[in-house]
Amino acid sequence: MEKYDIVIIGGGPAGLAAAVSARESGIGSVLVLERDKELGGILNQCIHNGFGLHTFREELTGPEYAGRFIEKAEELGIACKLDTMVLEISPGKIVTAVNREDGLFELQAKAVILAMGCRERARGALNIPGFRPAGIYSAGTAQKLVNMEGFLPGREAVILGSGDIGLIMARRMTLEGATVKAVAELMPYSGGLKRNIVQCLEDFGIPLKLSHTVIDIKGKERLEGVTLAEVDGRGKPVPGTEEYYPCDTLLLSVGLIPENEISGKMGVELNPVTAGPKVNESFETNIKGVFACGNVLHVHDLVDFVSEEAAAAGKNAAAYVKRESAEDTAEKDVWDAAGREVPVKPGEGVKYTVPERINAAHMGEKLTLRFRVDGVYRDCYVSVWFDGERVIRRKRQAVAPGEMEGILLDRELLLRYPGLDAIRVAIEPG
Ligand SMILES: Cc1cc2nc3c(=O)[nH]c(=O)nc-3n(C[C@H](O)[C@H](O)[C@H](O)COP(=O)(O)OP(=O)(O)OC[C@H]3O[C@@H](n4cnc5c(N)ncnc54)[C@H](O)[C@@H]3O)c2cc1C
Question: Burial code of 177-197, b = ≥16 C-beta within 10 A, e = fewer?
Fold first, then answer.
């Protein structure tokens, strides 16, 4: 069985940034396994610009952003196996994968980095009544058809869900000559970035119908139209608000699900809110030497944060391998004995945090605690509480579930509270 120091599952932006960082941290034996025929992940189909504003201070397209990391990985001689699907990972870090060249094979890793990204929620999860005519696509599938295969899925479209992919596809379909009649969103707020609402809907005069959903689908062989209705506070359609939209295409942009079937099967503990692994300050899961980053960990709206998180995961995995491989166990013993993990809890207005546990003795000088809020709040504060004491309070003009938030924690501050039981992040009124 071939042996590697670090095996990375997924060659999207997370896997690539983790690989580059692990290699730059001095680990020579790094392997990326990617099921697709090329590296770059979902970015390959995102031909719009807006990527890399934080990382490169430039507006790049998705393939350009991915290209920078692919070049770097090539420069560093990082090994990659494409067209290779990982099927299973044992808790002992034996990776089982399959491809045409090698057939079914196993690899032994010292550390594993999970970077499998996420998939779109499909119609089956939505309970929309009606037949199953042609013309209903997930927004990501439509994006692949338009941007990579050169097919326009239809001429008149309605989009259900206002996540970023749906918003971007509303603009894309319009630019390709289709008419997008409306974007319907079940929630009273959009699930996407503000900038996408402005640039993809408002600039093109496409109506965003908040608190609306599809209640009926017309058409047997091919979609003929959909009926939208307003919903009440409990998500139930309000009688008398039905509106019929003739259309040949319905795009669904109703959520992303991190790809964690392999992670769950190997015993990685998952957070029911994010559907991603629970990790500590090092992006390490409950299984020692198994790290997670990118959309498999929690769904990101900006790839820059994916790269940042993945670089940290790669660096931490490299440090883990060095400690575990050293003949002299002194460094490992010091590491294992240092500090203890303190749970991070989502408080009022906060849905989840990443990481979920922090050991101040293991973190760098600063750590960005990422989180999403559970509703739209204006003129509010993001507060961090150490047990009963509020230690950080930052003003925010507005926060919304579609935009990932972050707050910086100082190691020095944490070390001043050796008896700390819990860290809590909360949204407080202004
Ligand atoms: C439509 C869309 C538009 C976006 N627009 C923007 C934008 O404008 N600006 C921005 O900053 N961000 C944007 N994003 C977000 C950004 O693209 C993602 O956050 C980023 O791609 C996530 O990177 P990742 O590596 O975690 O996942 P992915 O890019 O999904 O990569 C995961 C990789 O893992 C592989 N994989 C999965 N399972 C296995 C397995 N079992 N074996 C082997 N390989 C496997 C997959 O094939 C894939 O290549 C957008 C995302 C989408 C979907």
Answer: ebebbbbbbbbeebbbbeebb
Pick the residue whose CA is nearest to atom 2 on ligand 1.
165
Q: How far is the CA of 413 from the centre of ligand 1 (A)?
A: 34
What average pLDDT does the segment 401-413 reach?
95
Strands 118-120 and 256-258: antiparallel
Greater model confidence, 192 or 385? 385
Dihedral in degrees, nearest 10, Cα atoms 70, 76, 79, 80:
0
Q: Domain range spanning residue 7?
A: 1-120+255-337
Which residue has the CA at smallest separation from atom 1 of ligand 1?
165
Distance, CA 308 to ligand 1 centroid (Å)?
14
Predicted local distance difference test score (pLDDT) of residue 191: 85
| Residue 126 pLDDT level (bands cut at 50, 70, 90) | low
Q: Per residue in 29-71, pLDDT tens? A: 999 999 999 999 999 999 998 899 888 999 999 999 999 999 9
Distance 164 CA to ligand 1 centre (A): 13
- The kind and range of the H/E element at 401 are none
Across the chain, mean pLDDT equals: 95
Q: Is any ligand 1 atom within 6 A of the Cβ of residue 66?
A: no
Are 332 and 362 found together in one domain?
no
- If one residue of 16, 32, 46 were mutated to test the ligand 1 pocket, choosing by the most ligand atoms within 8 A of its CB, it would be 46
Q: How many whole angstroms from 88 Cα to the centroid of ligand 1?
A: 20
Last residue of a domain, one of 226, 254, 282: 254
**Domain co-membership, 224 together with 348:** no
Residue 232 and residue 263 share a domain: no
Q: Whose CA is nearest to atom 30 of ligand 1?
A: 117
Q: Using an 8 Å Cβ cutoff, are 181 and 158 in contact?
A: yes
* In contact, 105 and 85? CB cutoff 8 Å: no
Please check the confidence at residue 131 and state whether its pLDDT lies above 90: no
Q: Tell me if 115 CB under 6 Å of ligand 1.
A: yes
Mean pLDDT of 111-135: 85
The CATH number of the domain holding residue 415 is 2.60.40
Give dist(CA 282, CA 356) in Å, integer.
11
CB 178 less than 6 A from any atom of ligand 1: no
Domain end point (choices 313, 337, 361): 337
